[in-house]
Specification:
Elements lengths: L7 H9 L7 E2 L4 E3 L4 E3 L2 H9 L3 E2 L7 H8 L5 E4 L8 H4 L5 E6 L11 H7 L4 E8 L9 E8 L6 H24 L32 H10 L6 E5 L2 E11 L10 E2 L6 E4 L4 E8 L5 E3 H7 L10
Parallel strand pairs: 1-4, 5-6
Antiparallel strand pairs: 2-3, 6-7, 7-8, 9-10, 10-13, 11-12, 12-13, 13-14
Helix pairs in contact: 1-2, 1-6, 5-7
Length: 304
Amino acid sequence: MGTPQFSVPALQALHENGHEILQVVTQPDRPRGRGRKVIAPPVKSAALNLGCPVIQPESVTGMDFAVQLDQLQPDFLVVIAFGQILPEKVLKIPRIAAVNVHASLLPKYRGPAPIQWAIINGENQTGVCTMLMEKGLDTGDVLLTVSEPIHPDDTAGSLHDRLAAKSATVLIDTLSAFAAQTIAPVPQDHSRATYAPMLSKKDGHIAWKRSAEFIERFIRGLTPWPGAFTFHGDQRLKIFKSRPVATDTAQRPGTVLPGFADELRVATGRGALCIEELQGASGKRLAIKDFLRGHNIPPGEVLT
């Protein structure tokens, strides 16, 4: 059970390692993009390429879905970024276990956006773990864990790809440990739990009153989605890359500061931020020197 691209490597690993995939469950096709074209989720496309049967229930809470799954008599239910909360009647169906793969080192960063928030909050390490599923949100006993460093230039996109690959490895290792009867579930310390809430497009609005270091992480954590942005007048600027600069300024946060001709330096709540790559109304991602050739943003103007 999975939906986005993050789930695909694990599905492929199950197939390549000889596990019998009785059913792939994913979200329904949805309209995407400006044209609102109906697009299949990545897991559906991958499953069909592998020759796996696919179902796309609008809801997993109804009895019809539970009965359909129960008739398969599965040993395991494997869930990776599926996108719906599973009721207890579904979690009890597999003969051995319902296993979830989660992109954090639990109990830190429970919830739907652990990759983004680990970067935003300045963590230097994260990882992937498998856990036994239960009624609570990411609260089950941890089975296996693998760590992954967060690099200073990591975006949510680059970290996502490395963790997706690791999720495939940790899942196969978990199923092998079940087969060898060496699996040892470890209860989470709930007192150490943190939450990584869902992000939406509106959450990408930059708060210039924050420190330059925080905003730089914020931009990386929201790249490529949902994207960090600010406004110059009524023009929306999507920012992809930046660099904090230690400087003292009494200017209001968001104020454009004097700098080199090909530089856009902005005052923050602490220090300044040099914007290095952004996208304006043209829809093209540009280096700042190329953007400034056609867009004058003089010192003293305020980004909001």
